[in-house]
Amino acid sequence: MSTKVSDLIGCPVIIGGGAAGLMTALELAPEPVVLLSKSPLGAEASSMWAQGGLAAAVGDDDTPALHLADTIAAGAGLCDEAATCRIVDAAPAAVERLAGLGVAFDRRPDGGWRLGLEAAHGRNRIVHATGDGTGREIMRALIAAVRRSPSITLLERVEARRLLVEDNAVSGVLASNDGGWFILPTNRVVIATGGIGGLFADSTNPSGCFGQGLALAANAGAELSDLEFVQFHPTAFDGPSRPMPLLTEAIRGDGAVLIDETGQRFMADQPGAELAPRDIVARAVWRHRAAGHRTFLDARQNPGADFARRYPVISAFCKMAGIDPASDPIPIRPAVHYHMGGIAVDGEGRSSVQGLWACGEAARTGLHGANRLASNSLMEAIVCARWVAESIEGVGAGPRAMLNAEAAPPPSDPSAVRPILTQGLGVLRDNDGIKRAIRSLYPLARKQGAASDAALVGLMIAVGAIKREESRGGHFRTDFPDTAPTAVPSSLTRTEALVAARDIVESVPTARSAQS
């Protein structure tokens, strides 16, 4: 690393090189800021892979109030209505902001936005770029803007390993690269590290996204919320590739349907059919497969021959698998796609730890509730980045304690955690499966080993799931299939999770006591 750490003392530190991190850095300009990316920019960011686009009420027949209603309906009673209203109101301006940064959104011949439809939206309000390459185009523009900005010090291949905290206030970041570990003294840190899909065997997320930001926050003592709500996308490409290629919901918005090997449309009689909320469609696909069927996305009639032009990225990987979507059904299955829970934050992105903010998928703002409405995630990252930046600017640099930090923990490896969460925290959950996961994760989370951070995040998800004795949105328990009359957000700290897990582990009778 050629940049001197001494030149960066006191600068805000943004952890994460996806859309949320890049946009926060840009919104902080011209204030000097440090941006950490554990890989080359864009290489392991879920934002780069986003196909659907941004949801915003920019159509002539649409309003933020309609967008709000659809978001709350999909969120299964758990959206924070005030936060959701504020975010969707700001969405149209976020589209314009991105366009101003050079994002080439798709437009109609008359120059207006070309808008798509996705599940549970009552209007065509999805703004796309290059068809199914929206995330790639947004990241291209944001990366270019970041590299042009003289106020942003970009440290690539640098990973944040721990937050230094004193009296519940951030004092620095312990980071590492190929040259070893070092400390960035600061009293302002933003976690923008994305999701947790890499904790599961079957996911559409990059394998490097396995909740590192949540582990950072949890180990710093921050409160996390609604961790049990994991969204499974119903139409991941059913093949050997991992991460699993995604088949965007926009294809179903164009009229594609779900069928099995017999040609039956198994969603046809459900409210909303193929455009029902994602949790409903994912469970229907899961159950149909469990009954012995194969499941497919049938786009042969709609969009039919227009498929390759409308969805060039998807068309390309289908072609590599020997499938022509215009003439062949596409094999699909559910896969982990998005995490509704995360670091509990207020309207400015502030966590329960002084000097720690979160933005993007790592944050729990209250927008998504128990089930994210399609294409609200990129929008949330862009909208909230401005508010996080404004909050940081209002704090300013402050005292920083130089702590005697221990050496950085070993590099994280989630491989031991993936089979545990895949088995115990899938589309359908139950008490026995969740408890088995907790008993397996608890010893891993307590150790200071390569699996400890991933195991801690997985354990906190499992504890949240065992405590929520109902089915709501992305959390479905076969032993508690009904939805409780009152929706209550969950809250959890690292200490609380470990105590709850210990009690479950210790409640298992030993062979000797069972005999007596």
Automatic annotation (TrEMBL):
<dbReference type="GO" id="GO:0005737">
    <property type="term" value="C:cytoplasm"/>
</dbReference>
<protein>
    <recommendedName>
        <fullName>L-aspartate oxidase</fullName>
        <ecNumber>1.4.3.16</ecNumber>
    </recommendedName>
</protein>
<keyword id="KW-0274">FAD</keyword>
<dbReference type="GO" id="GO:0034628">
    <property type="term" value="P:'de novo' NAD+ biosynthetic process from L-aspartate"/>
</dbReference>
<comment type="function">
    <text>Catalyzes the oxidation of L-aspartate to iminoaspartate.</text>
</comment>
<feature type="domain" description="Fumarate reductase/succinate dehydrogenase flavoprotein-like C-terminal">
    <location>
        <begin position="456"/>
        <end position="482"/>
    </location>
</feature>
<comment type="pathway">
    <text>Cofactor biosynthesis; NAD(+) biosynthesis; iminoaspartate from L-aspartate (oxidase route): step 1/1.</text>
</comment>
<keyword id="KW-0560">Oxidoreductase</keyword>
<dbReference type="GO" id="GO:0008734">
    <property type="term" value="F:L-aspartate oxidase activity"/>
</dbReference>
<keyword id="KW-0662">Pyridine nucleotide biosynthesis</keyword>
<comment type="similarity">
    <text>Belongs to the FAD-dependent oxidoreductase 2 family. NadB subfamily.</text>
</comment>
<dbReference type="Pfam" id="PF02910">
    <property type="entry name" value="Succ_DH_flav_C"/>
</dbReference>
<dbReference type="InterPro" id="IPR036188">
    <property type="entry name" value="FAD/NAD-bd_sf"/>
</dbReference>
<dbReference type="Pfam" id="PF00890">
    <property type="entry name" value="FAD_binding_2"/>
</dbReference>
<dbReference type="InterPro" id="IPR015939">
    <property type="entry name" value="Fum_Rdtase/Succ_DH_flav-like_C"/>
</dbReference>
<dbReference type="InterPro" id="IPR003953">
    <property type="entry name" value="FAD-dep_OxRdtase_2_FAD-bd"/>
</dbReference>
<dbReference type="InterPro" id="IPR037099">
    <property type="entry name" value="Fum_R/Succ_DH_flav-like_C_sf"/>
</dbReference>
<keyword id="KW-0285">Flavoprotein</keyword>
<feature type="domain" description="FAD-dependent oxidoreductase 2 FAD-binding">
    <location>
        <begin position="13"/>
        <end position="378"/>
    </location>
</feature>
<dbReference type="InterPro" id="IPR005288">
    <property type="entry name" value="NadB"/>
</dbReference>
<dbReference type="InterPro" id="IPR027477">
    <property type="entry name" value="Succ_DH/fumarate_Rdtase_cat_sf"/>
</dbReference>
